[in-house]
Description:
- This protein is of the alpha/beta class.
- It has helices at 22-27, 72-83, 97-106, 121-125, 139-151, 166-179, 193-203, 231-245, 261-264, 337-340, 342-356, 365-384; strands at residues 3-7, 44-46, 49-51, 63-68, 87-93, 114-116, 132-135, 155-158, 183-185, 210-218, 251-257, 271-277, 283-289, 297-305, 308-310, 321-324, 327-330, 387-391.
- The protein folds into 2 domains: 24-187, NAD(P)-binding Rossmann-like Domain (Rossmann fold), CATH 3.40.50; 193-340, Dihydrodipicolinate Reductase, domain 2 (2-Layer Sandwich), CATH 3.30.360.10.
Amino acid sequence: MKVTKYYCVLASLEHGNGAKTGSDAARGRLARIDTPTYTSNVCQITSRGLLNKDIHIKMSEKVTVAIFGLGRIGQIHLWNLLSNNQIRLKWIVEANTEHATFLLEERRVSRDIKVCGLSDLQTVLDDNSVQAVLICTPTDTHASLTIRALEAGKNVFCEKPLSEDTEEIRKCYDVAEQHGKVLMCAFNRHFDPAIRDIYQRVQKGELGKLHVIKCTFRDRPLWLGAHGLSQTFLVHDIDLSCWFAQGLPETVVCQASSNIKEVGEKNDVDTVAVILRFPSGTLAIIDFCRYSSYGYDVRWRYVYGEKGVLMADIPQTSTVKALTREGRREAPFCETFSDRFEEAYRAELDHFIKAMQGHPMEVKRIYSERVGIVTDAINESYRTGQVVYLNREK
């Protein structure tokens, strides 16, 4: 198999929204930096140093927010916003205003919430009482809306991915740093209890040196709204693999095929296998399929190291098991991503609010940048049939 060298330079590393330090930055290596504990009189730490801007919200105050988009993911965030006692939802921006109004009336939600269409978006951004914006619109609008909101002085929570273009991702974080605002990309898996537990135990050295990370994603229902090798589908497994392995992989290999008629008719792929090899020798193996007949299957099948293995099974709708003469019966798996990650969606929203109050941001700039770089390499490997080598020392 031929090898393609794929050069990249990471603009920023893990400190706040991203920072380089000393000789590690000069060599283009990933440097792990402990984020300092903030006091009540905090400064935001960025790749450009300390921003002494008073951007933080008092813990006793409710945060006034607007949400853009009420599609599948937007509705999940809508109900979490409405049930969060730290938040006051003031605006909903949705192309289909009738749909938005219906959702609010169906849940008998307060009429104090204003609903407007896209033509009135600037009115929302000009509202000085709005402190934060949640962006849940289609992926190709994420970067432009994020930049507009940041430039209007809003903190931004944006659904993943920020963009399918790595340079646009960097620009979003640059603007956030220039304006001293919080920008959080919704990597909700960092807040899933099972995945978080595995990560913390790995960091404590329970497994010793990591050998293999194996993750599975089989989607449900079938969705044709993005390409099979896009960040939209692969973002979480790439992010978590890099998170566990503490950096970028050295090499990327991808094979993919089309087994579903509707996908094949769009000249797309639905079944994907990716292998990432990290400088430590750790291998991350990602298998993805766009449709699962048995339920929404997202799991870290195992993390294997020199001292043992940690596994996370597929969550079920109930832990009750029945033993009868006919055998053993168990509850079905979760049907959709909203069921599987219900707790994680709430936790990531809480984390965003805490970041606005001055707590350290866990979902860092470098995470989005790494996903962009690796996704580009995956597409290059699939297109050429070659191993793609990520050389960080240009």
